[in-house]
Design brief:
The structure is a single chain. By secondary structure, this protein is of the alpha/beta class. It contains nine helices and eleven strands. It has a five-stranded parallel beta sheet with strand order 2-1-3-4-5, sandwiched between helices. Helix 5 packs parallel to helix 9 and helix 7 crosses helix 9. The longest helix is centred in the middle third of the chain and has 16 residues.
Length: 236
């Protein structure tokens, strides 16, 4: 059994009782601890009472939608990884999910084995395990902030800057190849979402710039190289 799964506590939020029960049973069999609730209000109560390693949210629910809940959690500073489930799989729907701060997106119907695989991928990413030698992990200066590559941690004068798992992994990928242009395909592969598409990568970059750049509209550090991709250029 996967050691990561043994300790990870998941919150499944879906108003479809049959699917909710199936997911709870399957993910429990996969070794996860699982709490399952029917709507956003119940999810909020659970989140206030317990710590979760990842949320699995349905988009369309009575009352507050999954997208609205994800956006609200991010606005409150809660960076728990979020995997969104939806019956709508169009690219614009995936983009909306990333814009609201989710880490991954799985359209219905889906194979439960793929869901478990994606959950483990997100949890590995959130664990921020170093994969390069320590000498290559020197902190990167981004104005008045410093990014610790090994810990995937961005610090500024006011302390740690909250990053989602996707944002941290994106900054890691760029920081490990400072000065090199990374294509959107390379970035997608580094994030573990090679199928995300160019627009989804652009959205992730835009969100990260809001936390790194003094003026995200005129980025100094995360620069766009037209027709090629993105490059990180550190500096004071």
């Amino acid at each position: 059994m996967n050691g990561m799964a043994e300790t990870a506590h998941l919150l499944v939020v879906d108003d479809d009782a049959r699917l909710r029960d199936l997911l709870q049973r399957f993910l429990t069999e996969q070794g996860f601890r699982v709490t399952a609730v029917a709507d956003a209000a119940a999810a909020r109560r659970s989140i206030s009472a317990m710590m979760f390693d990842l949320l699995v949210l349905d988009v369309m629910m009575p009352g507050e939608s999954g997208l609205a809940l994800a956006e609200s959690l991010r606005r409150e500073g809660n960076e728990v990884p979020i995997l969104m489930l939806t019956a709508r799989g169009a690219p614009e729907d995936r983009i909306a999910g990333f814009e609201h701060g989710v880490d991954d997106y799985l359209p219905k119907p889906f194979d439960p084995r793929e869901l478990a695989l994606r959950i483990r991928t997100i949890l590995r990413r959130a664990a921020q395990a170093p994969t390069v030698q320590p000498l290559a992990n020197a902190p990167v200066q981004l104005g008045h902030r410093w990014f610790d590559i090994e810990r995937a941690e961005l610090r500024g004068p006011d302390g740690v800057v909250r990053l989602t798992g996707g944002e941290a992994s994106l900054l890691q990928a760029l920081a490990r190849r400072v000065g090199e242009v990374l294509s959107r395909e390379e970035i997608g592969t580094a994030l573990g979402t090679p199928e995300a598409g160019e627009r989804a990568i652009d959205v992730q970059v835009t969100r990260l710039r809001r936390k790194v750049e003094a003026d995200p509209r005129e980025p100094r550090f995360i620069q766009t190289i037209r027709h090629r991709g993105y490059v990180l250029r550190p500096g004071p």
